[in-house]
Specification:
Elements: H1 2-14, E1 34-46, E2 49-58, E3 66-73, H2 77-83, E4 94-95, E5 100-107, E6 119-122, E7 125-126, H3 149-155, E8 161-162, E9 179-182, H4 185-188, E10 189-191, H5 198-201, H6 207-218, E11 225-229, H7 233-244, E12 249-254, H8 258-265, E13 274-278, H9 292-299, E14 307-310, H10 320-328, H11 336-344, E15 350-353, H12 366-371, E16 375-378, H13 384-396, E17 408-411, H14 415-424, E18 432-435
Parallel strand pairs: 11-12, 11-14, 12-13, 14-15, 15-16, 17-18
Antiparallel strand pairs: 1-2, 1-4, 3-5, 3-9, 5-6, 6-10, 7-8
């Protein structure tokens, strides 16, 4: 906790660079930024410590703002990086949650497209709609919604602002709450048609666009064999999108209970394409014992898959060396999965990175990358605006059912208990739908509500 909060203190001393057109660092509405009424919200209180608190509900503070009554949110694997304090510049009381949908409660005087009383899903990124990147629908790299100086120094540029994802990403309050303020609402909200329930539309905010982007940005071609590292919701949907792109074999690399979840929920019509690899049953690093790399070679004609997609993250070290270096601050992320992908794919293969990597890594096998002609592709934070309308149409046409990854339905009041359960995959928890007092009745196919 101390490191994350200290980084935010330093940013405040340095100051932002002034590039944002919307207010920064409003991660927990209070004082002049909140109303006197309160709401329930999931707040970060320190490393591995989140609490549902009564906090002031947000109000309109800029003319392009929209206030949503949240009817659905969820917990993402990347929320766990915040939970662990791995993402810098969190502050006590910050409201988490970057995936949400809801009913418009209030609109600012400059809002023209969004209408009160209608249902909308928000993109996890906050875009201006008219900068260089927004004009190309690359909304996650908007140049006008995040003025964090530290991020610019670390990355050579800034991402868009993001809901509920620390001051490093602009400091915006998230949607694991009963209300949320959406800056630049006309740009960052997509209306939900009457024939699409919240339980399906919600996931347009991140997971569907992220998994779709992972497949198409990495470039999966007809006939490809694809290894997916991480069998969580992003990996699961990436596997399905890879099949849709023409892949003939999908190899999931993870462990239990996620592999069993995939096995039980994989479409029967695509059963012959599925392979499961439990990395905990294999060795790693430089060894003569069977490894993930040797297993991938064996499954793919001795050469390895055509492409690999990283849908896990960089904070989870396998070996003691990376664990120690992360603990000491000598690196922020382990290179172990990256090396397994690079070494595992065939020569001139492609490796896409979609899981969260915060900063720097050691012991990266650049030799294999160079000598074997491997393409390492940072898929980036997915540009939701580029894909969400097409994905919505897939849902409407019955080509895409997000509910196949949704394992639990819970209440926002119980979210503090859900975080550690989600981390430990208790009861095979894959993806949750979080309801509030404003949520509509559950749709057909939704898991039944479980209280904790």
């Amino acid at each position: 906790m101390a490191t994350s909060q200290a980084a935010y203190r330093i940013e405040k001393v340095i100051g932002h660079d002034g590039s944002s057109i919307t207010a920064q660092d409003i991660t927990h509405p209070s004082g002049e930024t909140g109303k006197q009424e309160t709401m329930k919200a999931l707040c970060w209180m320190g490393k591995n410590n989140v609490q549902v608190l009564d906090v002031p509900r947000p109000k309109i503070i800029e003319p392009n703002d929209v206030i949503l009554k949240v009817t659905g949110s969820t917990v993402c694997g990347s929320d766990l990086h915040l939970y662990h304090g791995s993402v810098i510049q969190l502050d006590k009381g910050d409201i988490l949650g970057h995936e949400f949908c809801g009913i418009v409660d209030e609109i600012g005087p400059n809002v023209t497209r969004v209408r009160k009383g209608k249902r909308y899903v928000a993109s996890f990124q906050i875009a201006c709609g008219d900068c260089f990147f927004c004009n190309q629908k690359l909304s996650s790299q908007c140049e006008k919604t995040n003025s964090n100086t530290t991020e610019r120094a670390m990355y050579g540029g800034q991402t868009a602002g993001m809901f509920g994802y620390s001051h490093f990403s602009g400091g915006f309050a998230g949607g694991q709450a009963e209300y949320v303020r959406v800056p630049l609402g006309d740009v960052n909200l997509l209306e939900i048609p009457d024939d699409v329930p919240d339980e399906k539309a919600l996931y347009l905010s991140d997971v569907l666009a992220t998994s779709y982007n992972a497949v198409h940005d990495t470039a999966v071609y007809p006939g490809d064999q694809v290894a997916i590292f991480g069998a969580g919701p992003i990996g699961q949907m990436a596997g399905l999108f890879a099949v849709k792109a023409g892949a003939t074999k999908i190899i999931f690399v993870d462990t239990e209970p996620r592999l069993t979840f995939i096995d039980q929920h994989w479409p029967k019509a695509q059963r012959d394409k599925l392979e499961l690899v439990d990395y905990k049953k294999l060795s790693f690093g430089v060894t003569n014992k069977p490894t993930v790399v040797s297993k991938l070679k064996k499954l793919c004609g001795g050469r390895g898959p055509d492409a690999a997609i990283e849908c896990a993250a960089g904070e989870y070290a396998k070996g003691w060396m990376h664990w120690l270096e992360i603990s000491l601050g000598a690196e922020t992320d382990t290179s172990e999965i990256l090396n397994e992908m690079i070494e595992g794919v065939r020569a001139f293969g492609r490796c896409g990175v979609t899981g969260i990597y915060v900063g720097y890594t050691n012991h990266f096998n650049i030799g294999s990358l160079m000598e074997r002609g491997i393409r390492l592709i940072g898929n980036g934070q997915a540009p939701v605006h580029k894909y969400w309308e097409a994905l919505l149409k897939m849902i409407q046409d019955g080509e895409l059912d997000p509910l196949q990854m949704v394992s639990h339905r819970v209440r926002v009041e119980d979210l503090a208990q859900i975080y550690p359960m989600f981390e430990e995959r208790v009861d095979m928890m894959q993806k949750v739908f979080v309801e509030t007092k404003f949520s509509l009745p559950a749709c057909v196919g939704s898991p039944t509500l479980t209280r904790y």
